[in-house]
């Protein structure tokens, strides 16, 4: 008889589901149907002798993109209670149904939260499940077709809201940074400025980082893009690989047009034994640390996320392990900068023989909305069962490097009877003051150039004379200013500011100053 305490939380099942419009037998599944397929696969993966679906007392549903913002729309309708809609597809009737907030860290966060609840005896078996069907939605709309995916399920629901507080800044929005790509491009160019790289050199570095990811994706049956690409191919700007926001070519950003779902089932050791789930299916949760970053405009260094690093370091410390002990790594890769943030801090080589992704990464495997890291955890669990004694780190990023949850996993037992292995990391307190009044000038810290319907837009972040953070748009109709930004080297340049009729700050470069 195992000595593992009956309240020890263990992952007992993982499942993934996917489909592509070009696949034979393509079914054009809804979000809820695809999520149900993943949960069904996770329950089968437990190899339970008893009815595992009926044993689930908690389901945490990850928000699909269509319901992740107040202004988002679900073209074909939505379920009123996603966790219960998914649960009823497998015969689960949970006592507790949770619709989690928005963010790519949420599934990793829920692993820690649910594991801690199980360790306290508040739950016996919980499931985390999510899905995206963006590719199907776009394919159907493009073909002029409609579907009715609305579901009236009813029942208790713990809706945790969107969780967007502190993420969006009115000044950044007003100046055109309305998308994730725009925000991450600002961070990326801030890192480029720190390193002193040209645009060409930096695009080459992104290509070198991501080329090995394409090899992993090519071998993954659930990947959206299964072509191996060279570093040079990823970095080369072409009509097909156009710039979507400087410095990003299209192939190097998260691919959201996917139909992917993943599920994770966690049980107490006692419940797992009662269901006849063999211990060779168990993977232990050694630590999960969850952190929040300062709002973008208040961050002292726009090229780094210390909260993300604190999350990883805290999880490693609580697990009693080091990064060198990790045989498996999955670093969240919606863009290059969250990966570089980790490799820079820990001195990891981008060609580390362990690899930096288990799935192929968000640009190639696919950016399944808020649910990507459930796929990474599923891959880690499957491999750890085969590599007993090994450890895995999964890093999950949310927002604009706003939230980060890191998890440490192994088939080796983890003792939850002592120190808590689910940790909330304090938010950094050293903040930059935002300018409250219009400034006369700014010194450029970072920028990006975006395409809009009316032409290119340059978003600039910098500091005024008092060291306060200022947002502006570079006046690209002004020839010296346009030349400065087209050259890609505006860092440290002082720009004069004026206020446009619509209230935006407009920045101009005096080449003679």
TrEMBL record:
Q: Which domain of life is it from?
A: Bacteria
Please verify whether the record's keywords include Acyltransferase: yes
One GO MF term on file is:
acyltransferase activity
Record keywords, A-Z:
Acyltransferase, Transferase
* Gene3D superfamilies per the UniProt record, alphabetical: 2.40.50.840, 3.40.47.10
Its family remark reads: Belongs to the thiolase-like superfamily. Thiolase family.
The protein's name is Acetyl-CoA acetyltransferase
Record the organism: Pelagerythrobacter aerophilus
């Amino acid at each position: 008889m195992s000595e593992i305490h009956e309240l020890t939380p263990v992952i007992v099942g993982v499942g993934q589901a996917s489909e592509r419009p070009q696949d034979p037998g393509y079914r054009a599944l809804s979000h809820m149907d695809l999520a149900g397929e993943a949960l069904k696969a996770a329950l089968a993966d437990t190899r339970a002798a008893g009815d595992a679906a009926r044993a689930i007392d908690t389901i945490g549903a990850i928000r699909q993109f269509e319901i992740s913002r107040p202004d988002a729309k679900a073209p074909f309708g939505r379920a009123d209670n996603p966790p219960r809609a998914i649960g009823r597809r497998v015969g689960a009737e949970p006592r507790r149904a949770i619709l989690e907030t928005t963010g790519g860290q949420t599934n990793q966060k829920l692993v820690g939260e649910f594991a801690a609840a199980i360790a306290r005896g508040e739950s016996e078996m919980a499931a985390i499940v999510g899905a995206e069907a963006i590719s199907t939605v776009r394919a159907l709309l493009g073909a002029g077709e409609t579907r009715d995916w609305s579901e009236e399920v009813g029942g208790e629901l713990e809706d945790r809201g969107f969780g967007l507080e502190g993420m969006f800044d009115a000044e950044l929005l007003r100046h055109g940074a309305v998308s994730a790509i725009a925000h991450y491009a600002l961070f990326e160019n801030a890192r480029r400025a720190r390193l002193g790289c040209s645009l060409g050199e930096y695009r080459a570095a992104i290509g070198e980082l991501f080329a090995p990811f394409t090899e992993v994706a090519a071998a993954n049956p659930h990947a959206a893009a299964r072509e191996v690409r060279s570093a040079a191919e990823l970095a080369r700007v072409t009509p097909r690989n156009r710039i979507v926001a400087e410095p990003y070519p299209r192939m190097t950003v998260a691919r959201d047009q996917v139909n992917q779902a993943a599920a994770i089932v966690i049980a107490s050791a006692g419940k797992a034994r009662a269901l006849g789930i063999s211990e060779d299916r168990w993977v232990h949760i050694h630590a999960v640390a969850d952190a929040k970053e300062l709002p973008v405009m208040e961050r002292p260094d726009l090229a780094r996320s210390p909260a993300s690093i604190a999350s990883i370091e805290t999880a490693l410390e609580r697990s009693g392990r080091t990064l060198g002990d990790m045989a498996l790594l999955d670093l969240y890769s919606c863009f290059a900068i969250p990966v570089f943030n980790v490799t820079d801090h820990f001195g990891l080589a981008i060609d580390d023989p362990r690899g930096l992704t288990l799935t192929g990464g968000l640009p190639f495997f696919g950016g399944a909305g808020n649910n990507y890291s459930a796929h990474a955890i599923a891959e880690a669990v499957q491999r750890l069962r085969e590599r007993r004694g090994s450890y895995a780190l999964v890093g999950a990023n949310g927002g604009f490097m706003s939230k980060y949850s890191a998890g440490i996993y192994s088939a080796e037992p983890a003792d939850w009877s002592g120190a808590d292995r689910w940790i909330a990391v304090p938010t950094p307190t050293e903040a930059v003051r935002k300018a409250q009044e219009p400034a006369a000038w700014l010194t450029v810290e970072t920028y990006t150039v975006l395409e809009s319907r009316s032409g290119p837009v340059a978003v600039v972040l910098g500091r005024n004379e008092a060291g306060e953070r200022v947002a502006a748009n570079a006046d690209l109709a002004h020839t010296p200013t346009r030349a400065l930004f087209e050259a890609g080297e505006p860092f440290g340049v002082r720009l004069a500011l004026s206020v446009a009729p619509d209230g935006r700050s407009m920045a101009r470069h005096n080449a003679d100053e």
